[in-house]
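Request: Could I get any protein with tokenized structure?
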Amino acid sequence: MTASIIGPNTITRVRRTLNHAIRDENYYMAHQLYKSLYSRFVSLNDKDSAIRTLHEGIDYLLSKHQNNTATDLSQVFAKCLSAQRFIPSDDIFDYVKDIFKKFGPSLSTERESMLNIVIQWTIEFCPEFPHGHPSLHKNIGYVYWSESNYSSAQYHYLRSSDGLGFAAMLVELHRTRGFKHEVDLFIAQVVLQGLCVRNKIIAQSTFQSYTKLHPAINDEPPFILPLLNFLCFLLKILDSGKLKTYIVLCEQYQSSLIRDPSYTEYLDKIGQLFFNVKAIERRPRHSQHGFLGNLLSSLLSDCDHEGEPSPSSSRPMNVEPLD
């Protein structure tokens, strides 16, 4: 059917039939008519009405517990974003957020399937965001937070640019599920993971917001907790790319870094991404070098190969001013 044949009268007739199906609670017919109405708007090149119709249909079918037909429309919705050449925007991200939230945790597989398609669409149109658009991840992170699914929320916030929201979630998570002495561990993991996914913005902004929002951290740098000082210094030296300074920093705060075994892999990755360090040689956990020993040995080796002086382990180097 050509666009010249499809006009306002056709749209009106389909809408009238749809309203009758809704009145009669004929959910199968309503599902088919929503798809038909969407196709007609596409033929008229009215993409905004097309996407709004799909959102309306998903919302209606979910409200009537018609999960299978709602899932089908959500797949049409997700795939049409690329097929119809939609440009990523906050309006569409709001639609995705609303649909994702209304599916709820009980339909996690269905909504994740839709989300994966949407993320790939944002990567297609915004290749500068290889993990997906930050605003989309912000919206999904917030939904997971509202469901108290902190693990999934953290995954998406790490790929967003909403440091303030991420920090507020972390403060809530620590105060409700963490121990008092772990206040610095919660933010350390996030900063290091953020850097490992090349999201320096989220690492920096979340650290700054967390240290201001958390009631147990009521001071400015230098902090009472050594691990917080390590993170503060680390974030300041990233742009310098100076391997010597990175080595000294890891050496000086080694006693704080051994509190979490996962930090070694994070620091190894950060060294590769920001300081041109080769991946460290993996050795058994009982290696005589001890915790972080392999990492520091690798850093020192790379430093020697680059012709930079190797800092003495018995006499620490002076770190250059970081201000």
Q: What stands out?
A: The two ends are 67 Å apart (CA to CA). The CA atoms of residues 147 and 273 lie 34 Å apart. The chain is about 65% helix and 0% strand.
